[in-house]
Amino acid sequence: MNSKNKETNIIRVLLVDDEQGYLNVLSNRMARRSIQATKAFSGTEAIQILRKNDFDVVVLDLKMEDMDGIEVLKVIKRMVPELPVIILTGHGSQTAAEEGISFGAFDYLSKPCELSELLEKIREAYQHQPNSDS
Amino acid sequence: MKQSVTERTAFYQILTRKITVLILMVSFFPMILTTGILFYRFNGAYKEKINAHISELVQKHTQNIDSFLSEKLGNIRYLARLFDNNQQTPRIFLQQQMTLLRNQYGDVFTDLGLVDSNGIQFAYEGPFKLENADYSNAKWFIAAKEKAFYISDVFAGLRGHPHFIVTVKVSFNGSNSLLRSTINFGAFNSLVENIQIGRTGIAFIINTKGELQTKMDVRLKDSAIMSILDPDGHKKNETIFSEKQDASGKRYLCVTSMLNNIDWIMVFRQDIGDAFRELRKTQILALVLFLLGCGAIISVAFTLPRNIVKLIASADKKSEVMNRQVIESGKLATIGELAAGIAHEINNPVAIMVEEAGWIEDLLEEEELKNTKNFEEFKRALVQINTQGKRCKEITHKLLSFARKTDSTINDVQINDAVREIVSLTAQMARYNNVIIETELHEGIPFIRISPSELQQVILNLINNAIDAMHKGGGTIKIETKISKLEKNHVVIAVEDNGPGIPKDNLERIFDPFFTTKPVGKGTGLGLSICYGIVQKMGGKIDVYSEVGMGTRFRIWIPFQEPLSEKPLNEINVAEPVSATLADK
Description:
heterodimer, A: five-stranded parallel beta sheet, 5 helices, globular, B: 585 residues, alpha+beta, Beta-Lactamase, Heat Shock Protein 90, five-stranded antiparallel beta sheet
C-alpha cells in the first residue's frame, strides 16, 4: 500500500490543516521543489485520502475543527504504522507536540517555520522510512 | 483599600466592645446577684443571732433581779411572821434577826426597823441612828402603809444615799405597823452591772416614770432614758427590741424587759455600731473583696478582648494575604491561558503571510520577472516580511513560554535563563520608562528545584517596583546572579536600581502586607509581601538595602542541592568574573 515512489524520486506528501490559505500556498511552493503535495482540509478528509492513495510523509496540524490532530495521528498509525508523520502546529505548546511524538509522530515543527526547515524535516523522514532501503 | 481598612478597624472595634460587654455582663450579673443575696442573708442571720443573744442575756438578768427581790421580800415577810409571834421586845427581836441576816447574806440588808401607823420608827437595828425617825411624809411610807408588802423605788432618803426599802405590814400592840428593811443599793446594783457587752453595751433599771433605779452611768443622759419608755406602757414578761436615736443622732439598740415583782423596767442599751461591729467588719471585708473582684473583671474585660481581637485580626490578615496570593497566581494563570490562545491565533495567519511571501519570492525567480525595474525592491520587501514574521513568532513563543510557567509546579530551573526571559518580557516597558536593564549573569550556577513561574513572579515584581520608583526620570536596573560566598549552597539574585531609594521608616515595613507608598488604586501593597512568602517557601531569604538618593538593592538567596563531584565549587568560583559590581556580603 505504501510503496515508495522511487522511480520518479518525487516525495508524496499529504498536508493536513484546516487553514486552506496556508495549505494552498504551501502546496504550490512544494510543487516547485519536486514534492507532490496533496491537501486535506480536515482530519476526516485526510483519512479518506489516505485510504485511496499512498504517501511518503504526512504533515499534520494539531488543532483542527472537526478532529483533533492527535486523534488523526492515532488513526494514521493504525492504518499505516510505518508512514512518518510530522506535526506542524501553531499552538506552540511543547507538551502537545511531545504527546504527538509519544503516539509515534516523527518530529514536530511550530508555525510559522521556514519552508527549507520543513523540507529538510520531510526529507529526513522520507530517508528514515523502514522500507526506504528496500 | 483605605475604606476597607477603616471598615475593618470599625468591625474590630465593635467586636472588642461586644466581647467586653459580654464578659462584663456574664461576670457581673451572677457576682452581684450572689453577693447581694449572701450579703442580705448574712446580715439578717447575724442580726437575729445578736438580738437573740442580747434578749437571752436581758431575760436571764431580769429573772435574776426578780428572784433577788422575791428572796429579799420573802426574808422580810418571814421576819414579819416571826415578829407576830414574838415575845421579846421589838428592839431585841430586830437585833437578833439582823445578826442572822448578816450571817446569812452579808451586807445585803443594811438595817431593819419598825414603823408605827404614824410614821414613827419606834424600833431600829442598823448602822445609823434612826430610832424615832419620822417617815410620815416619806413617799414610801404613804405608798406602803395600806399594802401588805411593798418595795419602794430607789431614793436618796434622809441620809442622801441611794437605797430602796422593803416593807411588810405587821401588827404590834393591836395596831398596824410596818417592818421595814433597807436593801444595800450596791449589792443590787452589781447584779445589773454584770451585763456588759462590747464597749457601749450597758444595762440599767428604770421605773415606769423613767427614773433611774440603778447607778447613773456616765454614758447615759436623762433625755436618752426618757426616750426608752414605751408610750403604750410595758407589759410583764415581755422583751421589746427597738432601734432608737439619741439627741446627737447616734443610733442605738434598746432592749427592755419588765420585772415581775415591781414596776421596774430592765433596760439594755448598746450603740448599733458597737453591737454590730463584727458584722460591719465582715461587711467591709466583703465589700473590699467585691471591689477587688470588680476591678479584676473590668481589667480582664478590657484587656482580654483586645488580645483576642488582635489575634483574630492577625489571622484575618494572614488569610487575606493567602487569598491574595491565590488570586494573584490565578490571575497569572489566566493571563497565561489567554496568551496561549492569542499566540495560536496569531501563529496561523503569520505562517500564511510568511509562506505567501515565500511564494512571491519563488515566483520572482522566473526569468521574465527578474528583469523588472523594481525587482530588488520586491526582494527587499519580501525579506522584511520574512524578518517581521520571525519577530512575531519570537513574541508569540515568549508568550507561550510564559503561559507554560504560570503554575507552581517545581522544575529544575536554570536561574540565568529565567532572568533572561523576564528581562526580555520587561524590556519594552523599561524602554518606555527610559530605564536600562543591565545583567551580569555568572556562569556555572547549578539547576535549582523551584517553581519557575514563582521565581519569575518575584523577579518581575522587583523589576516593576524599580521601574515604578524611578518614574519617568529613567535610570538603570542591574540584575546579577552568582553563587553566594556567604551562604553555602545558595544562589544570590540581586536586583539593584539607582532610583530615589526608600526612607528608613518605610524600609522596616516594606515586606508587611498592605504596606504601599503608591497612590490609592495603583498598588495593593502585597507584591513584596508575596515575594517574601514565595522566597520563604523556596527555603531562601530576601533582604533589602536602600539609601535615599542613591538607590535600592534587593537580594534573594535560594538554596540548591550540592553540585555533583564533576562540577566542583572552585570551578564555579573561577568562572565568576572579577568585575562583580554587587558585593555579596
